[in-house]
Amino acid sequence: MNRKWRQNVACSGRERVKKKLAIATTVLTVFLSAILVVASGCAVDRNTDETAELKPLETTEYQGVDRNTYDAAELKPLEITEYQGKNLSSVDDFSENSIKGPQYVDIQSYQLKITGLIEHPKTYTYEEVVNNHIGYKKVVTLNCVEGWSATILWEGLLVSDLIAESTPLPNAKVVIFHAYDGYTSSLPLDYIIDNDILIAYKMNGIAMPPERGSPFQLVAESKWGYKWIKWITEIELSDDVAYRGFWESAGFSNNADLDKDFLEE
After folding, report:
1. Do the bridges between strand 184-188 and strand 174-179 make them parallel or antiparallel, or are there none, so unpaired?
2. SS (H, E, C) the chain
3. Closest-CA residue to 142 (of 94, 96, 103, 175)
């Protein structure tokens, strides 16, 4: 009797466990089905929709500076430091000694005038000067009377090419250069032609900085630095062989040859 009762109780217990497992299985199935339904409603069919592009995260602050409150710094162009085996100075290896400080000329409105003893006076824009004439490169050292020097790869065009386009008159002997700041200097016409003298718009492969003389600086090789006029706005042909520019009028040599003293006796 007792043995049979125990068997009935054991069977009854197993039935209850089976029922609980069945209930738990049903609940779990319903729960998982609900999750799948929700997930399928939010999912994107990759076969019918384009892949959304994630927007990259951007920083709004760098080293304590709010990027929304300052302009991006302009990277300084790289200049070459050697050319055909020659070491070059930097465009920064110059002392500021102009008569009115650096001049910042607007390239868009800039004009270069060819005037004086010529048959055809001309006026050029910056683009016309640079793009409509053959460019040349030359390594030349500028020697300043202050005692410093700078060896630079200059790139520009021949002054003689500009002069030829205006057809100089037979009595033209001197070329007078005028600058944006009022500075002037002069050189013999024969010297300009015979030495392939340039007006430069590039230094060491980069655009000439305003501080160095942009739009154009004269590359007066074999002459002292005061002949290397910057910010040129006018090239005038003259017969005045006695003309003296800014420093020449103050007692500097009008010839300005490097092998001679720059001060006249």
Report:
1. antiparallel
2. CHHHHHHHHHHHHHHHHHHHHHHHHHHHHHHHHHHHHHHHHHCCCCCCCCCCCCCCCCCCEECCEEHHHCCCCCCCCCCCCEECCEECCCCCCCCCCCCCCCCCCCCCCCEEEEEECECCCEEEEHHHHHHCCCCEEEEEEEECCCCCEEEEEEEEEEHHHHHHHHCECCCCCEEEEEECCCCEEEEEHHHHHHCCCEEEEEECCEECCHHHCCCCEEECCCEEHHHCCCCEEEEEEECCCCCCCCCHHHCECCCCECCCCCECC
3. 94
Q: Tokens at residue 7, please?
A: 């068997």
223-258 pLDDT per residue, tens:
999 999 999 999 999 999 999 999 999 999 999 999
Instruction: Read off φ and ψ for residue 124, nearest 5 degrees.
Output: -115, 145
139, 135, 138, 136: which is closest to 89 by C-alpha?
139
Q: What angle do CA 136, 142, 143 make, to 5 degrees?
A: 160
Structure tokens at 66: 């709010």
pTM of the model: 0.72
Q: Say how many Å lie between the first and final Cα of the chain, rounded.
A: 148
User: Please, what CATH class does the domain formed by 82-250 belong to?
Assistant: alpha beta
Give the tens place of pLDDT for each residue, 27-56. Answer: 555 555 554 444 444 444 444 444 445 455
> What CA–CA distance (Å, rounded) separates 94 from 14?
101
- Residues 6 or more apart whose CB falls under 8 angstroms from that of 15 comprise none
